Amino acid sequence: MYSRLLKEPLKTGKSFFLFGPRGTGKTTWLKSNIPRSLYLDLLGFDLYNDLLARPGRLENLIQPGFKDWIILDEIQKVPALLNEVHRLIEKHRYKFVLTGSSARSLRKKGTNLLAGRALTYRMHPLTAIELGKDFNLERSLKFGHLPSIPSEPDPGQFLNAYVQAYLREEVLQEGLTRNLGSFSRFLETTSFSQGAVLNTSEVARESGLERMRVESYFTILEDLLLATRLPVFTKRARRRMVTHPKFYYFDVGVFRALRPMGPLDSPEEAEGPGLETLCFQELNAINDYFNFQYEFYYWRTSNGAEVDFILYGPKGILAFEIKRSVRLARKDLKGLKSFRRDFPEAKLYLLYGGVREEFEDNIKILPIAQALQNLPDILGV
Fold this sequence. Notes:
alpha/beta; 6-stranded mixed sheet; Rossmann fold; 13 strands; 16 helices; 5-stranded parallel sheet; 2 domains
């Protein structure tokens, strides 16, 4: 088992939410770090039914005077429990850990997330830092970083099963959609939009679905933390910018499992978006774990100048361009240089498939593997 970078929640001694897609290691982390906790799994049928019928029964499950942590796993299954958790925090000063797949889905059900009485954290797939000596760029690009992957004898089969489990357990059982076939077509179609400017009408046409249904499916993916629509960076814009977001599934392995490949498909077609996805998920994880508070964007003008990722926050503006090639040409720096003309205060990075660290025209050029293992220093500036 790998040591995770998430450390902060237990230091505060305050109740907290821990959100993340299924399979990112939330439960494993909690059981390892809080071995004497009271663990209540809402995926258990009997417990789920009991607390769904009468949330007040939660108090009867806790021994009076209990001082350790109380874990409610998959809290989104019974949102009404949050009112009872709120009451017990006020009455007994109990400490709760509440795990789930999305804060947004809870808010949509009218829950206030304990009115600020609990902090909120995110669990991500493994990072290059957590993998340490086991990090292998080529393997990561193929299978991603879900915590079960390193120990799986057949990672590809595991990822296929993971995708099907999500369709069945998260989407169908939660009643988010009744048409599993159309949702499956949508998932496959959106895999071709990975790392690209998203055109919802085009996705609807390719998947044979109505545009409004496709939009609702995108919302489902975001609610379950399975995907992100990355907005355009328009602050202090001096040029005409594109308006559509870019699209990313949360893990490169999940993306590769959803992306159909056949004899007419070139592996390179998935490798470019896959590399961007890996860098994006790593940037997101380090930003959350170290509380750097960056907001994420991409930058693209109407005439095609583009930078893959813009991070904007209290520590400044960081711009990242991702290239798979092992050798760089001057055109590879074009987007970053164009961005710098509008934002001279930005720090610029180009991550590429080569092995040499370089510095050219105030642009830091780093091998991808090296950069991913040093992201805290890069983002911490």
